[in-house]
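pinging the channel bc i need a second pair of eyes. not urgent but kinda urgent?? the chain im working w is below, pasted from the shared doc
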Amino acid sequence: MSNFIVPNTFVPGTKARAQDVNENFSSVQDELNTKAYKAGDASIAFSVGNATEDNHAVNKNQFETTLEDKISEA
């Protein structure tokens, strides 16, 4: 499990500084990007055969389904 720590905490009824809120969002974004990279987004390879007809292609849904399957296997 990750050791992610939210950099700033806020007390109910007090004002939050925009800089602190933005820092929290940036930290969450960085953590999500790290998790996506570790899940294999940057290293998954697909073998695609040569098209034998002009209209052969993989549609977006087929690609995303295959991508989700590969990530869940990682």
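so The longest helix spans residues 18-38. and DSSP finds two helices and no strands in the chain. — does that match what u expected or am i reading it wrong
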